[in-house]
Write a structure and sequence with these properties.
By secondary structure, the protein is mainly α. It has one domain. It is 97% helix and 0% strand. The protein is built from 1 helix and no strands. It is rod-shaped.
Length: 103
């Protein structure tokens, strides 16, 4: 009978030790997953910030390129107008003078 009681106590002690060990493992796993989650969130936020900065730089570059192209087009139109004025200036002046004098 005494052996049976000792065996029961021994089994209970082993069960308690196993439960304690299992709880420690559970706590370690929870802590590990929490650390991994924090690291993952940090990495995702850093990647998002990097992507946002890349998009911002691309948009700024595209905008600058569009502005430069618009300026180029305007400069070309101004040059065309100035060339037309140069070619027709004397004719226009003459026509204007004739119109004023013929009135």
């Amino acid at each position: 009978m005494e052996d049976v009681i000792r065996r029961i106590i021994d089994i209970e002690e082993k069960a308690q030790a196993l439960m304690k060990h299992t709880m420690q493992e559970k706590e370690a796993l929870i802590k590990s997953y929490e650390e991994k989650t924090v690291a993952l969130e940090k990495r995702i936020l850093e990647e998002a910030d990097t992507k946002i900065e890349q998009i911002r730089k691309k948009e700024l570059s595209d905008s600058t390129n569009e502005r430069k192209e618009a300026e180029k087009q305007c400069d070309m139109k101004i040059m065309a107008i100035e060339e037309k004025i140069k070619k027709n200036k004397e004719v226009w002046i003459s026509d204007l003078v004739n119109q004023v004098l013929s009135r």
